[in-house]
Specification:
Layout (H helix, E strand, L loop, with lengths): L13 H9 L5 H21 L2 H18 L9 H22 L29 H15 L3 H12 L4 H8 L3 H26 L1
């Protein structure tokens, strides 16, 4: 007896699942999402830099993918198609933020309240401060890049997506991805070395 569609033993390829979704299989698209949601979320989080924005971008992207599944032609892998939609959703949100910037509320210097102040170390916890600070520095520097450079670096450098596939995801030429990565790396290096000098 064949396993239930969309179940854990579903052996269909992503493209077969997408075709089944278009044909009316109610579980097929959910299986595609289950297979790829963690990586889509990670890419969105790195690209947006904010968990709420990333969650909204992934949700927007999956709704778009659900609605556009009948237009998938198989020219690229389903994963490439999904990544393109997620990155585009992130870039759309970044463009909207640039038009209507928001200023985050800063915590008061005294901290206030009963909780620990930002930056306080919890007693007894292993000191991973340097590693955490390095990750925070990279994340902060990444957010200072223009969104197209950030998206290229996230895909190529952080998730190891081949340049050709990243070009397909971003809808640009391979040379454009290489150029964006090169410029982005140079800016990141400058930002991070500047931070190191400040701390030194």
């Amino acid at each position: 007896m064949a396993p239930a569609a969309g179940g854990p033993a579903d052996g269909r390829t992503d493209a077969e699942l997408l075709a089944a979704h278009v044909a009316g299989d109610p579980d097929a698209f959910g299986e595609v999402v289950r297979r790829h949601r963690d990586r889509l979320w990670a890419v969105a989080l790195r690209t947006c830099g904010d968990p709420e924005e990333a969650a909204d971008a992934v949700q927007d992207a999956l709704v778009s993918a659900l609605r556009a599944a009948d237009r998938f032609r198989g020219d690229a892998a389903v994963t490439t198609w999904l990544h393109r939609i997620v990155v585009n959703a992130c870039l759309d949100r970044a463009r909207r933020r640039a038009v209507r910037p928001t200023v985050p509320l800063e915590e008061e210097p005294g901290g206030g309240g009963d909780g620990p102040r930002r930056g306080a170390v919890v007693a007894g916890a292993p000191d991973a401060t340097a590693a955490v600070e390095a990750r925070l520095d990279v994340a902060a520097a990444l957010q200072r890049l223009p969104a197209p450079q950030r998206a290229a670096l996230v895909l190529v450098d952080m998730y190891g997506v081949p340049v050709e596939e990243a070009a397909a995801v971003l809808g640009v030429a391979v040379g454009t991805v290489k150029s964006r990565c090169s410029r982005g790396r140079a800016v990141l290096a400058g930002l991070l070395s500047g931070r190191a000098r400040e701390d030194g």
